[in-house]
Design brief:
Keywords: Carbohydrate metabolism, Cytoplasm, Hydrolase, Magnesium, Metal-binding. Its main location: cytoplasm. The protein is α+β, with helices and mostly antiparallel strands. The chain folds into 2 domains: about 15-200, Fructose-1,6-Bisphosphatase, Chain A, domain 1 (2-Layer Sandwich); about 215-340, D-Maltodextrin-Binding Protein, domain 2, CATH 3.40.190. It has helices at about 15-25, 25-50, 75-85, 225-235, 255-265, 285-300, 330-340; strands spanning about 60-65, 70-75, 90-95, 105, 110-120, 130-140, 165-170, 175-180, 185-190, 195-200, 215, 250, 270, 305, 325-330. An 8-stranded mixed beta sheet has the order 4-3-5-6-7-8-9-10, with helices on both faces. Strands 12-11-13-15-14 form a 5-stranded mixed beta sheet, with helices on both faces. It has a two-stranded antiparallel ribbon with strand order 1-2. A hairpin with a 4-residue loop joins β8 (about 175-180) and β9. Residues about 350-360 have low confidence and may be disordered. The protein binds 1,6-di-O-phosphono-beta-D-fructofuranose and magnesium ion (2 copies).
């Protein structure tokens, strides 16, 4: 897979052009393309609102609580409303949003379901750190009985991530970047603010290998499982430890910003389960955070697991369900799984094995 930095002057594909080229005359693809495009319009609005900072009032500050008990900022709700309004005419039957306890019924006969985190990382709003939007597009199954969410019949929003037709995430940073996959590679578009248009700036992105960088909230160390503790211990031990090389650490506390960094320069991200009350399945949500990120990362040659199993193989049972999440360069993600499968005391960190070469990657 090639990874050229694309020059918009010679590769002027706008998001709309890229979507049109991909969809052709296929009705389901056209529906996906239309939906990504209207989400793009909502994203432009959210970017403009964020770009005004506190000129129109406070961005952060809790105004309520969502279904998961997280506090909601004014902008969490505004972003949700902008997405809802943008989807009004789209071929979407169901919207599942972090900011709505239950799925929202849109057009009953439409072929798609959208799951979205309208504003990711919103606890960072008042510090002007990058936040984002994450979305997943699924087929709306005709046989589903949506009122039985969580029951025997499967709601379209509760399909495993392997059913996704498209996924995207945005970083509202110094520039607004949109990473998208339609199952045919990962593309990055940059918002041309003056034209209110996304233009492709990276084509068929491939996560670079070899970057020795990990991202984890290290303040939770004492609550982690031994496998995660061992993995991080070995990174921290650096050149003197079993890995035999030094590692750098990053933690922005903004999933989209971490995911974008991993896409651009490699490394690994971990938000594992831990022993704090309420963190038995980690913090991040499977349906509208982990699944779309996993699809995009895999389409860029990387991997995403819950530590052991591929994220996209997990059968969701609830819209707001959490999952441990590990993603990044494939070799590093696979190494984390091996720390889980090695018997305690015989892992790579074991003094019995010291700097054994078997798992050096
Ligand atoms: O504060 P913590 O525990 O480090 O968690 C940070 C994580 O929580 C999140 O902010 C969760 O997303 P929301 O802001 O949408 O709830 C992620 O962006 C980030 O990776
Ligand atoms: Mg989030
Ligand atoms: Mg959010």
């Amino acid at each position: 897979m090639s990874d050229p930095a694309t020059n918009p002057a010679t590769d002027p594909a706008t998001l709309a052009q890229y979507l049109a080229g991909w969809s052709g005359d296929d009705p389901l693809r056209r529906a996906v393309a239309e939906t990504v495009e209207v989400l793009g319009q909502a994203i432009v609005e959210i970017a403009e609102r964020l770009g005004r900072g506190e000129l129109d009032g406070p961005l952060g500050g809790a105004v309520g609580r969502n279904a998961d008990g997280d506090s909601q900022a004014t902008l969490d709700l505004q972003a949700h409303e902008l997405v809802l309004a943008a989807l009004a005419g789209a071929p979407v039957a169901w919207l599942g949003s972090e900011e709505s306890e239950s799925p929202i019924a849109l057009r009953p006969d439409a072929p798609l379901a959208v799951a979205i985190d309208p504003l990711d990382g919103s606890s960072n709003l008042d510090t002007d750190v990058s936040v984002g939007t994450i979305f997943s597009i699924l087929p709306a199954l005709p046989a589903a009985t949506p009122t039985a969410l969580g029951g025997a019949a499967r709601h379209p929003l509760l399909q495993p991530g392997s059913s996704q037709l498209a996924a995207g995430f945005v970083v509202y940073g110094p520039h607004t970047a949109l990473a998208v996959t339609l199952g045919a590679g990962t593309q990055v578009f940059t918002l041309d603010r003056a034209a209110r248009t996304f233009r492709r700036t990276r084509r068929d992105l491939a996560i670079p290998l070899g970057r020795r960088e990990y991202a984890i909230n290290a303040s939770n160390y004492r609550f982690w499982d031994p496998a995660i503790q061992s993995y991080i211990d070995d990174c921290i031990a650096g050149a003197e430890g079993p890995r035999g090389e030094n590692f750098n650490m990053r933690w922005i506390a903004s999933l989209v910003a971490e995911a974008y960094r991993v896409l651009q320069r490699g490394g690994i991200f971990l938000y594992p389960r831990d022993a704090r009350p309420g963190y038995g399945e980690g913090r991040l949500r499977l349906v509208y955070e982990a699944n779309p990120i996993a699809f995009i990362v895999e389409q860029a040659g990387g991997a995403a697991t819950d530590g052991v199993s591929p994220i996209r193989s997990i059968e969701p049972h609830a819209l707001h369900q959490r999952t441990p999440l590990v993603f990044g360069s494939r070799d590093k993600v696979e190494r984390v799984a091996r720390y889980h499968s090695d018997p305690p005391g015989l892992g790579e960190a074991s003094p019995l094995f010291g700097r054994r070469g078997l798992f050096r990657a």
